[in-house]
Amino acid sequence: MDFKLLPKVELHCHLDGSVRPETIMDIAKKENIEIPSYNINDIKKLIIAPLECKSLEEYLSRFQIPIMVMQSKESLRRVAYELFEDAAEENIKYLEVRFAPLQHVNKGLTTNDVIESVLEGIKAAEELYNIKGNIILSFLKNVPEETIFEVIEEATQFLNHGVVAVDLAGAEDEGFSLRFIEAAKKAVALGYKLTIHAGENGIGKNVLEAIELLGAERIGHGIYIKNCPTAYEIVKSKGITLEVCPTSNVQTKAVKSLKEHPFYEFLKDGIKVTMNTDNRTVSNTTLTRELQEIDKEFHLTIEDYKNIYLNSVEAAFIDEETKKALRAII
What we know:
Blueprint: E1 8-14, H1 21-30, H2 40-47, H3 56-60, H4 64-68, H5 73-89, E2 92-99, H6 111-128, E3 132-140, H7 145-154, E4 163-169, H8 181-190, E5 193-198, H9 205-212, E6 218-221, H10 229-238, E7 241-244, H11 246-251, H12 263-268, E8 272-275, H13 287-298, H14 302-315, H15 320-329
Helix pairs in contact: 1-2, 5-6, 7-8, 9-10
Active site: 200
Organism: Clostridium amylolyticum
Binding site for Zn(2+): 12, 14, 197, 278
């Protein structure tokens, strides 16, 4: 299969993990931002995580420099536009991009300024390319719960006008869902969808709690349901979609190698698996490359691919009319 030519949908992609290295240098120079180096090779070494990362925490350290240059309206517009330009080039038809607004207010922007700027970048790309997209608002698991209330309440003006969901991301500790029950209730009451990073680094029970306590409709990664039968069964029985990111999962040690990734077993057992990049730059990947690499190990059939694609369409936080159009493409 020529995966580049096939239509694709991506549901799990972080904006700050997908910034072009050349753009980081250019913005730093234009906005007088001091970064560790202005040599492109040095920057790549600092922001691209190796396959032999020791942990999720080491992987997450690669985001520091991109966030430094994403503190102005113009930089946010540009980064969003370029991500969608890159995605369209590999025939992605729909992309949900996530980022943490609170990470981009260090130089005076409001969270609504941040969201509006990213939306402007997305819309500019949509006008030029055959791609559509929406935003997921992420919150790091180490933030106080009350900070989430303020952001999601203020951002309701964008709800269903480019913003569709709320996410919890970052380093994963056992039982984190217990800290965010009220925030999740508030988000749902306001009309946001919910996707939660859980089960990425060895704690399958976190997936169970994200679903039962927070009401997650999708799970970011979810690899460790393999070690938690109760979580596995609830994901399967409720049709919860897993946002799988193979290269990232190897880097963060969710799996030892791609060959040991359980996604294909999940797929064949009827679990709704989708394929994603997680972070295009940090993981040095594209959705095409992710598909190519898993094909080498698992020899996907066209029916496997259609299943993954349609899982993505059905789980996307979009209206039925857009889903119908995406279904028709395949």
